[in-house]
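quick one, 417 residues, struct below
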Amino acid sequence: MNRTFDKKESWTNKKRKEAQDELLSSMVKLGYKKSATIKKIFYKHKIDPRQIKSREDLETLPVTSREKLVEMEMQEPPYAGLENPDTKIDRIFTSPGPVYEPHLSENDYLWARAFHAAGIGSDDIALNAFSYHLVAAGLTFHTGLRKLGATVVPSGTSSTQIQVQLIKDLKVTSYVGTPSFLMNIIKKAEEIGFDFRKDFRVKRACFAAEPLFPAMRLSFEKDYGIDTYQMYGATEVGDVAYECSAKNGWHICEETIVEIVDPATGKNLQPGQLGEIVVTRLNDIFFLFRFGTGDLSRLITEKCSCGRTSYRLAGIAGRVGDAAKVRGMFLAPSQLKMVQAKFDNLPLQAVVSREGHLDKLTLRIEKNKQDTGDSSWEENFKDIFKEICTVKIDQVEYVAAGTIKPEEKVIVDLRKW
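---
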């Protein structure tokens, strides 16, 4: 099977940088030619597109946060004018905000290198437990698995009982999804009466969308014999980094330029310093330069024992700003404002915590009207909240009017990273 990324993964850093700089220069010129939005950004910051010839030159451009991208797309739907109008888009995905993303290409190796690094190949039967509905995860992971010849079971977000049955009946060997969901599947199997390690064939798991905590990883590997790997990306920019067998940082994908920057200034930090992960995906479809993921990490430049030569990310150390990821989905202040608008600017606050292996979302709501909190009112509120924010509320806590102050954050993240 022809895997072009095999050779790229062993490039010298000099060769990799030269190739990326050339692609970046072409992307800048094309974006400036095809996108009025890019022209406006360059004009505002007094940037000549011919000046951007290397990754170091990217620093002259502003970092675009997810909140900013939402705002831009609301002003100029659906893609904020960042797309190439001459390119045929094969799929359009959405993520909370809402953000609309044109799928970059079905012909590239999105996520395939991550699965390859985890040892997944044509002999594997892989259960893909990411959603196939509207969001990019299910279909892009599916495509990556198929690039390697693996058989895919598109289970999506089916119930744990159904997942157990699929894993057993189809003799699944690999799992792709969130770590908390796999743990729930294992617990369901044990509840039914199975010994997961003895009765099932799952030997490796690739995780994304939420943290893999050390205690959970230890349990997967020691208790259940599952070799675990972490993957990192975002719908807006695709796959960004992945873990190899050395499990000492996440290798940065060849088609992405990753910067670690000071969140306050957007200026690049030295390797080893903690800062925000900023990504530029090299492509000719969606001209999103310097996308600020909101995640904090450090850059590792030392060689990896696996033989791959790319720089690595030292995992995720936390979040920048007010947005938070709940069960793999972003929850942003802009979404909560949309919910508030549906209920006459109802004062509310989202509190994200952790119970065992799961994220917990509690909504604090001021009981400022007589019917606020009634069973029918709460049911309607939860439905509208899930429709706008995608994430389901776990608990509603009603507080007295005036309790939630205007200056307080609308999203409070109590989790410890």
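The mean pLDDT is 92.
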